[in-house]
Description:
The chain is mainly alpha-helical. The chain has three domains: 5-296, ABC transporter involved in vitamin B12 uptake, BtuC (Orthogonal Bundle); 300-369, Arc Repressor Mutant, subunit A (Orthogonal Bundle); 373-442, Winged helix-like DNA-binding domain superfamily/Winged helix DNA-binding domain (Arc Repressor Mutant, subunit A). It has 20 helices and three strands. A three-stranded antiparallel sheet has the order 1-3-2. A hairpin with a 4-residue loop joins strand 2 (359-361) and strand 3 (366-369). The model has no long low-confidence stretch (mean pLDDT 87).
Amino acid sequence: MNVLSYFTDAVLRGPTIGCMLMCLAAGLVGVIVFLRKQSLLGESLSHAAYPGVVLGAIIAAALQETSDLYLSAFILVGAFFAALAGLWAIHYLQLLKIRTDSALCFVLSCFFGLGITLASHLQFSHPAAYRQIQGYLYGQAATMTDIHILIFGALSLLILCCLLLFYKELQIITFNRDYARGLGLPVHKMDVLVYILIVLSVVIGIRSVGVVLMSAMLIAPAAAARQYTNQLSTLLFLAAFFGLVSAFLGNYLSVELTHQFAIQYPRAHITLPTGPTIVLVASFICLISIFFSPERGLALRLWRIARFRHQCMRENLLKAIWREGVDEEITFEQIGQIQKISKFYLHFILVGLVNNGWLEKTGPYTYRLTADGAQWAAKIVRLHRLWEVYLADYLGIGAERVHHNAEEMEHILTPELENELTLLLNDPQLDPHQQRIPGKATL
């Protein structure tokens, strides 16, 4: 099927648009949860909502309201109040001086256990209603209809309006609660609003991805968005965008891959449930962001660290050769004794130094500094010894302890800092070890 059919087809548009609305709301509220470091709260409330789901189904069955609209309404209302009850229980346990993580885990297990107990009763008293609530436990987005679009659309719109109306207040309270109190903002009321928004997002999401996986949709889009920005407005936009993308791709892959598996392996009966697929896509986006985002990406940070260490090794090698003599030839074996690294890596560095014009190869295994290489090595030695003088004279660190720190600083001192040190130290000629400091004239 083409992409447009997921928004127009009578069977596909319910799951697609409904899940996108759910992930939009979860992404927006998840930013607040993520920034407040309350990630486990979503997990606890999603499990706490399950007994409300079962009670809603029991009441609907007792009233003989079996239509999808009435059953969904009863279940969502029950889930909402059950999640609020779980929230109140967490708050009450915290007032009793119980650790937050212990309170969260206690409420999660107790409420979920109560829901399972009620569901076991419903399984025999109202089997049809029991089958329907299983979609709220594990998620059953594929059976969503246009009615769910209207319900989830209204709840998502409510969450979006609350965030827009109270954006400034939420921003201040999230990042500086003491400052917010000083301004006279209603911090407690804003906290209540945030908790209600979290409960609403959980209620919206459990129909799509289920009680078990709902917390992932709160945190994954927000964690992915955090890798790209420091601004709250951009963070909210990116989290909402990643949520929408996760929902659509989750639905698309669920349908298309299941169809392909049915063609390729007709006897295997391989299916991809929509809810877990949405979570997998969101998790994949989060992992890609964590590893490859421009500023915070782990892979790029590791690359920058490796590149800096390589630069330090090259400069240390030049410095070591400079100490042996500017015009002296030095063999590969001698260099290997100075720098204890593998021969392959040493050869790689030497090739790079020769290509940069800092070393010249005078024989098959002999090298000598060029004029540019000698100047650069002298500069590194000068920065090293200037920093040693600063540590010894101004910070009072013993001469025997300054070398290691200077070994690190010599690679990151800028020309501006070099000038400042030169003026501050009155252009010293000797370091704390009484070794000559190369002058600027040699650079």
